[in-house]
Predict the 3D structure of the following.
Amino acid sequence: MRADPPKQIEDERVDSEFGEFPNLTVLVIDSQHTRWAADLDDWNAATLLACISEDPANWSELAAVWPRYRVGPSAEFADALPLAVIDPETAVERLSVEECWMVLDFERQRVLSSSAYGDIRRDGCFGIACDDDEEGASGNSGGAAAAEVQMSIHLPPWWEIHNDAVPEQVRRPRETELRRPRSRRDILWGPPLAAALAERMVASFGSSQWKAASASDDSHARYAFTVAVHREWLMTPREDLEGQTPRASLHGGIDWIERVIEGQQWNVSQDRPLTRLPHELQTYREGPMGRGEVCMYFDLCRELIDVGWNWLIEREREDAASAIAASDARVDARVDERVGALARVLEAAQDAWLQSPGEGGGIPAAIIRDERDRIPAVLGEEEQGHLVDCDCPLCLMMAEGLFGPTFLHFDGHHLELDGEFAFSLWEHHDEWEMDQAQYRAMAAEIEREREAATDPPGTLAAAAEEDELLEPVWSGSFVSDELPGDPLGHLKIAFRVTDLVGELQARRAPQADVDRLNQAFIEYRHAGLEQRRLASRRFKAALEQLALLHPSLTSRAADLQSQLDELLRRPTPAV
């Protein structure tokens, strides 16, 4: 789990082309009607396309998600667009005489566009620049970061995209089989989870392997059984999942959900109200899980298994104390009773866990709710206090709100620690295998470097030491002379202080040294105009003391002192 400041939407996944699009003809097909609009302006057409990012099932569901994407000159409601019901065959015939057109086909879940409209990308961003009196041209653009209004588009992986299409293609079936993932939360988050875990745990608890490992008394030995129970639950096909495994229901849309939510971060950064996904929509009820929910699910399973082991161990001790003797039939009955009792304990534990703050301060039920509603999770002051690393100057500045709202993200690295495909965020086994091979290669390279570091003088290690002497003062960070939006130079200094803090931590320096440096920087950042010179002097004194305690940092401390002097000589900017 990590906290990130807002970021621009454009990246390697976003269309980097920019251009002006003419008005166009739009055809919308669902199971009830075929709708036609001639000469629709390109911004409203783009808004229609953006709504497909939510995987609506029909026109009514598209209209329901329209408020999530209505920005700039978009119509207030989707039903206000000049779309008229038309005969399907007539619509296709009319397309043959149109030059610039786009088709949204809900029945076959695909988008088609003519060559005159330009390529539609699965991930893109439309932007529009506004003057005081009029609004400028829009485009499918990675340059939308500079625009005053932007709209992110992330079409679901199972929607087909057909650029340079011809009208006849509208009549044809899909080119690929439609495989829309279903999360089946009623199974994965419902009573079947507790029942299946309880059955597996009771069976493992009474096994000879458990006794041989002394797992009741040794938590480290018990961990292997935890992994096995968790793996068996995820990887065992079930009838109530139509022969699929629970793991399959966790995957299919993780990256897509994450991109859709990231696309809404611009609204937060602009103080625009967020519109949650309506819960009556099919995409809310059956849509796939996002990264946050999958991570929460892993944590829940591990929590329930730990609760189960502790409960079984306590019951075992109670039975031993009462010296129960029973027939084989009675033992079988007691096993069934124990499975049922444990399942009830696990269901109660799940309800409590969902409503309890985690290590990062977030409540799992709220985290999952926000992700299912497809809105960014914005951290409050209390949650930021839990999440940020208080030794990191940049994180401290983030907690103060200096970078705007802070969003909660999950990287899911702890799902990979067991080296098991069952728990991995990779959907397919071949992807996971490739990732594991890369990890092994990286580990081998690190080991070779470690062995080279022990070589005698004159070998690679000695050469590396010579190279180190020639490195620039700041080898752990690079900061250009000027940073946009940093008139006082605080952000630039923060990168330097972060470099020093990281070096202190790597050398296992006393925590007091880190705290002293951070406190001097905090006082410097918070100093008013009258106190700037005094705060700078105190900051430089802290750097002087740092150099005395850690001579290897002398050059960096001296360079930072010079940068502070330079900032004092500059005219005070208006902020």
Notes: Residues 185-253+288-387 form one domain. The longest strand covers residues 123-130. The longest helix spans residues 291-322.
